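ok, trying the design again with the full structure, not the truncated one.
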């Protein structure tokens, strides 16, 4: 399994024969080198979305069309795009599981918001979510943008994820300290990868507080376009 950070909350996850592009944001992403777009997207089999904010979906429609791959995500948003943008989608909802080849993806709740920018302000775009991604005998908890929630304890009982990809930049999501609290209180991760940080000055720039909160856990501060082999 290879997990490659593409900056902010965007990832390329290669698992059990699938290549998932998670929340792809390339255009205007201060951390992503635009000249590496082809490398980041090569061979992708699906796009996996957590919600509709621009910093998660900015390049989704273009990629779905040019790569000719489906977008996987929350039912209301997927239905809207299928009807209005005429792309291939796979929509499901909280507690549901879809199978992408040999990868099982279960949608779980997140505490955030989900909207598009419209001419009269934000327009509702379904609901925010996270995922449990199971394959190769491993389980990844992809938090999406969220705060700490006691539901995390239930998800650990049901899925026992050993890898956590946690939004931890603060201001819009839980910060490093809160992400550390969530990880040590509700999960038994072997590996934690923070995201949704460094991108803007308002966000946390270091994972030091997360590292301190999780002794005995491998906390990996990802580097853009450098694969993490797990």
């Amino acid at each position: 399994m290879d997990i490659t950070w593409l900056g902010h909350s965007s990832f390329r996850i290669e698992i059990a024969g699938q290549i998932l592009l998670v929340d792809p944001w390339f255009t205007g992403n201060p951390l992503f080198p635009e000249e590496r777009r082809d490398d980041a997207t090569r061979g992708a089999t699906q796009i996996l979305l957590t919600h509709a904010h621009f910093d998660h979906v900015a390049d989704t429609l273009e990629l779905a069309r040019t790569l000719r791959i489906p977008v996987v995500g929350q039912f209301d948003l997927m239905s809207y795009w299928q009807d209005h943008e005429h792309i291939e989608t796979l929509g499901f909802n909280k507690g549901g599981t879809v199978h992408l080849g040999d990868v099982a993806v279960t949608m779980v709740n997140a505490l955030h918001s989900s909207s598009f920018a419209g001419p009269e302000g934000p327009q509702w775009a379904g609901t925010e979510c996270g995922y449990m991604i199971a394959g190769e005998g491993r389980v990844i908890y992809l938090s999406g943008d969220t705060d700490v929630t006691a539901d995390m304890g239930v998800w650990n009982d049901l899925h026992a994820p050993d890898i956590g990809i946690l939004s931890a930049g603060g201001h819009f999501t839980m910060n490093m300290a809160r992400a550390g609290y969530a990880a040590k209180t509700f999960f038994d991760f072997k590996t934690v990868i923070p995201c949704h940080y460094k991108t803007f000055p308002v966000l946390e720039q270091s994972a030091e507080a997360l590292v301190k909160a999780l002794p005995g856990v491998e906390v990996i501060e990802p580097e853009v376009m450098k694969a993490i082999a797990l």
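Keeping the full-length input from now on. The chain has one domain: 2-222.
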